[in-house]
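Supplementary Text 2. Reproducibility record for the structural model of the 256-residue chain.

All settings were left at their defaults, and a single model was retained for analysis rather than an ensemble. We include the record here because the model underlies the residue-level annotations in Supplementary Table 4.
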Amino acid sequence: MARTWVLLRGLVREKRHWETFPEQFQAAVPQDTVITLDLPGNGEFWQERSPTRIAAMVAHAREQLHAQGHNGPYHVVALSLGAMMAVQWLCQAPHDIAFAGLINTSASRFSPFWQRLRPMNYRRLLREAVFSRDTVRKETAILEITSNMREREFLHALAEKWAGYAASQPVSLSNSLRQLLAAMRFRAPVALPDSVPVVIINGEGDRLVSPSCSRRLAAAWQLPLKMHAEAGHDLPLDAPQWLINTLLEGVTDSAV
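Retained model, structure tokens:
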């Protein structure tokens, strides 16, 4: 039976930031449908106001899918802030989801703020990724913090490309801060519905969010944890084929 995969990106990112990952994923599951969504304030919705609650982001995503004619249940692949959305979605409408892969995410119930956003990045993120008006410098800083397995020349070229995204569909400072507030105040449940298979996926080289956050979630929720030894926070960029294989293995294992 054909499946519908929904890809959710992270803080101040849009669906174009997946780069070639959706196409690679689609090639691996030609019988399925792979969908990428933008959040309010990002991408095609850049002129909208970002919610300060994860639940409102979930409502927007569900509305998008319904408007596109999709009814679920969905296989959700979610990174960072997107994974917080997936957790919220699982709690409020578990019948909507058939499977979830939660990548490099965290929650205040299980991890302190200095692990959810590692202190070694504070100064650079504020100086270059938040307040800088040089978009190439901003995107370079983000990529150098979130990616471990790409050459410097590749990252510089990608930063220029991402600066183009920012020029065409800019995320305002206000919306950036509103999304950050939503992430910081998100409080995960003590347990997830046991009716939906979920896999926690982690890049052990993540320099933005401590890998211990994923380990704590997996332990608290008694879920399988899949770890890539070298990949950073942007695991779909660093190790796309490994991630695809891990997700498909997770679906297969849950069906056994």
